[in-house]
């Protein structure tokens, strides 16, 4: 054994009946996240996961665990036999990793195994005294310690640790149904996808591509974005829809000032049909209120009317700055800022309607054979799985 990690989860412990499903999903997600970095054994016990690294780099395991939604914190732990002297020795070895003169510390013991002869406070006192003897200059401080040495006494053995590494929180991907993410190459939609995954949603991405107006590089970018998102939720199914024909039709037959609204309505219609085929229950977009012309309340209203399934907008209350900070943190920012042409910017009208009226939009659409356009687009949609 090279290392052992105690993996804690929060919320999922609270949800009565669904709890077992959540726990099993989390265990499966942890196994999948680790399968290509190390040989590990992942077990579920005592409302925890125990990850034993048999072979491979523990640092890589730690980094991966920090990307698994549902994990609240991770502690690299040492084990000791159920014997006070052994516990003291292992505690000292663990403590030596953080000890320094002047360090304020306390020992905290949890005794789940009531067969163990000493009560928790006594274990803490004895281990604390042992540490004081072995590490000159450290100070006991139970109220504001710099370091806590935890001793967990379980049925089979005792676990001893000093570190708690924060996990990403949220719920395990796979427990909250499926959503179709409208994924552009921009900064916002990948963050919207990430936030949905954080709440347990399985995301399938849909990207509208306008070859030859948009290049292969624009497509590459979306694939790279999916790869980055996949690091948090396993593989992502990416659908690439060819939007060129629809854009040409719109340009020929409809007023330019409505083109963004009309394009978005077509995107939403196609996304809804895809959702239906893929058994997804919602659409997800990177819209945030008021950011651009197509994201006024009026525009959102007129656009969303074409769908009957819910549209989730996880960024709705966020400022651009906040979205950018998050996109840096999750590693999508550097991909999103690569220069590219978006199918929407290419046909950006000079004066887009910021308050489109439903009746104008519907009148414009009367010139189109919408059903055929959608059916053709769906028929040519390519699908790939990004790991
Ligand atoms: P983003 O940074 O996600 O591109 P944005 O601020 O540029 O967002 P818009 O261009 O108005 O906003 O797009 C709004 C939303 O519409 C996007 O967040 C995305 O969900 C969807 N969208 C836009 N363009 C595309 C596209 N080419 N393919 C798929 N979805 C798209
Ligand atoms: Mg955009």
What can you tell me about this protein's structure?
There is one protein chain. Helix content is 40%, strand content 22%. The chain is of the alpha/beta class. The protein folds into three domains: 3-79, 2-Layer Sandwich (Alpha-Beta Plaits); 82-156, VC0802-like, CATH 3.30.2130.30; 178-386, HUPs (Rossmann fold), CATH 3.40.50.620. Strands 1, 2, 3, 4, 5, 6, 7, 8 and 9 form a nine-stranded mixed β-sheet that branches. It has a six-stranded mixed β-sheet with strand order 14-13-10-11-12-15, sandwiched between helices. Helix 8 (259-277) crosses helix 9 (297-304). The model has no long low-confidence stretch (mean pLDDT 93). The protein binds adenosine-5'-triphosphate and magnesium ion. Residues 182-184, 186-189, 206-208, 267, 285-287, 291-292, 294-295, 342-344 line the site of adenosine-5'-triphosphate. Adenosine-5'-triphosphate binds next to helix 5, strand 11 and helix 12.
Give me the Rg, rounded: 27 Å
Work out the strand percent.
15-25%
Order of helices and strands: EHEEHEHEHEEEEEHEHEHHEHEHHHHHE
What level of helicity do the residues show?
25-40%
Judging by the overall fold, what is the CATH architecture of the largest domain? 3-Layer(aba) Sandwich
User: So how many helices?
Assistant: 14
CATH superfamily of the largest domain: HUPs
Q: What number of structural domains do the residues give?
A: 3
Quote the average pLDDT: 93
Name of the top-level CATH class of the largest domain: Alpha Beta
- The N- to C-terminal Cα distance equals 28 Å
The chain-level structural class is: alpha/beta
Low-confidence stretches at least 5 residues in length (pLDDT < 50)? none
What does the main sheet amount to? 9 strands, mixed
